[in-house]
Amino acid sequence: MGTLYLVRHGQASFGADYYDQLSALGQRQSERLGRYWAERGLRFDAVLTGTLKRHAQTWAGIASGAGLDAQPLVWPGLNEYDSEAVIRSIHPHPLQKPDSPEAYRAHFRLLRDGLAQWMAGTVSPQGMPEYTDFVHGITSALDHVRSHHHGQNVLLVSSGGPIATAVGHVLGLSPDATIELNMRIRNSAVTEFQFSARRHTLLTYNTLPHLDGPDYQEWITYA
């Protein structure tokens, strides 16, 4: 049996003009996770990431903290959906950048609704694949891990949507349940699958062992 560690990227730049960039805190979260694993002697036989900048930066932070130098396999199917395109598919009018708790809640209500309709095939967000193709991009990465890395430790760095989709696929969850997983996942959170040549099994979801303790409570973020 092998273990697949799925990590959501560190805090990015939600609400900024350019989201796909780790914040200073996101960089610290990533490096802290690497140090945590190094302290426990965890090494990886293979690393997969999406193509987004925040994925590469998160892996670089983990590698720096852990003293790793592996060359990751870049897998485009691990990229996040375009949340703005999802929202525009059901709300074509321009939205102001969220700048208050109420505005943030409204943003995520629209995102939930848009995701549900995309998953049901009701809408086709501009520039995005059909939902079945999005799922295939993720499950193909899981299949690759099972077929090429049996008995090994594998790290996968991606985003909340793909990781929640992977968990939903393994557990056979409904679209609504998968969306709720997506909305709850935290930055730099670790999800673990045990895997054999035949299947993946969920061990943990959305954990932050590297941020456990009073010194790191303010490091816990969601966007």
TrEMBL record:
One of the Pfam families matching this protein, by short name: His_Phos_1
GO molecular function terms noted in the UniProt entry: phosphatase activity
One GO CC term on file: cytoplasm
Listed InterPro entries: His_Pase_superF_clade-1, His_PPase_superfam, PGM_Phosphatase
Name the record gives this protein: Histidine phosphatase family protein
Source organism: Hydrogenophaga aromaticivorans
